[in-house]
UniProtKB/TrEMBL annotation:
InterPro entries: SBP (IPR006059), Sperm_putr-bd (IPR001188)
Main location: periplasm
Keyword Phosphoprotein: no
Swiss-Prot/TrEMBL keywords: Periplasm, Signal, Transport
Subcellular location: Periplasm
SUPFAM superfamilies, per the entry: Periplasmic binding protein-like II
UniProt cross-references to Pfam families, sorted A to Z: SBP_bac_8
Protein name, as recorded: PotD/PotF family extracellular solute-binding protein
rRNA-binding keyword on record: no
Length: 357
């Protein structure tokens, strides 16, 4: 027994020594507590040069992690296993995170560059007064298509996706709200519809689409469409911009029945450790020059009106990605449907994916 106690004591002392050495090493490299900022963002959603510049200007080491869905992001933040100082959820997720007390309120006085945001993108329904969030990017959901693979046809409606000529020729983003949403829109229902009869009707119609669906994929949808692996893809507008930059044959349209107008905003999770660093980073990204460079790199639409003026005309004047206020007023923002209904949407989407198999 005495030998066992001595062994445990020795292991404990070694472990403490290693922890102390690691702490000293991190401190000497400037990576200790207040000198580190952990950012949780969508994949391929920031110009990496801007992260390097922020580190150099602020002296703060950035730890950058990514997620592929709002639901995955919310689950990880709620579980609290990893501390994040800044995250970039979408509008309905922000509303849900507010309800679940997962966010810290934003002190606008610490964000002087917030003045550059277009008023159209402030004080929206998911976060009145921008009490908990700061605009980052916005856009639409629509259809990328390759005219050469469609015999010159131009899709204008969600219902065009059901054309038998598109058999095994459509790629879909792996998102429940997006897919169930366009199913509802194709029937002229709201993409926030909670009427069970309407949802089941949309599900049956989506099931009928399966012969045309080649795959339901994540970020690889951009490469697949650019490489002409499919004629049509349902994507977010920023992905469409990137795809089209890789293959100029492709085009993008928002269907006439309507679609989603989405917003991704920066927030500070309640468990954040480097709050001052979070404000420094957000204000850095709100700088018009930085916001313009980020928009040009990522391909999504900037809500920063001063940044928009700095972008090349072929970007800022492209109405496919910077649609008029008249069009955006016809589009819908995702509502927070509540935990039960959101789970139901996810179940319907899973059933749709299972139906394909």
């Amino acid at each position: 027994m005495r030998q066992l106690v001595q062994l445990f004591a020795a292991v404990f002392i070694v472990a403490l020594g290693l922890m102390y050495a690691t702490s000293l090493l991190n401190s000497s490299q400037g990576y200790s507590g207040g000198n580190t900022l952990t950012i949780y963002n969508w994949g391929d959603y920031i110009d990496p040069d801007l992260l390097a510049e922020f580190e150099e200007e602020s002296g703060i080491k950035v730890i950058y992690q990514t997620f592929d869905s709002n639901e995955a992001m919310m689950t990880k933040i709620e579980q609290g296993g990893t501390t994040f100082d800044v995250s970039v959820p979408s509008e309905y997720a922000i509303s849900k995170m507010k309800e679940e007390n997962l966010l810290l309120p934003i002190d606008h006085g610490k964000l002087p560059n917030l003045k550059h945001i277009d008023e159209r993108f402030m004080n929206l329904s998911f976060d009145p007064g921008n009490e908990y969030s700061v605009p980052y990017f916005w856009g639409t959901v629509g259809i990328v298509y390759n005219p050469d693979l469609l015999d010159g046809k131009t899709p204008t409606s969600w219902n065009d996706l059901w054309d038998p000529s598109l058999r095994n020729n459509i790629l879909l983003v792996d998102g429940a709200r997006e897919v169930i949403g366009f199913g509802l829109n194709s029937l002229h229902y709201s993409l926030n519809d909670t009427n069970e009869a309407h949802l089941q009707e949309a599900k049956r119609k989506l099931d009928a689409l399966t012969p045309n669906v080649k795959a339901i994929v994540g970020d690889e949808i951009k490469m697949l469409l650019a490489n002409e692996e499919a004629a049509v893809g349902v994507v977010w507008s920023g992905d469409a911009s990137e795809i089209m930059s890789e293959n100029e044959k492709l085009d993008y349209v928002v269907p006439e029945e309507g679609s989603n107008l989405w917003f991704d905003n920066m927030v500070i999770p309640k468990t954040a450790r480097n709050i001052e660093g979070a404000y420094a980073f957000m204000n850095f990204m709100l700088d018009p020059e930085h916001a313009a460079r980020n928009a040009e790199y990522v391909g999504y639409s900037t809500p920063n009106k001063e940044a928009l003026a700095l972008l090349p005309e072929d970007i800022s004047g492209d109405t496919r990605f910077y649609p008029s206020p008249e069009l955006t007023e016809k589009l819908e923002v995702y509502d927070n449907l509540g935990k039960k209904m959101l789970s139901h949407y996810n179940e319907l989407f899973l059933e749709f994916k299972m139906h394909r198999k």
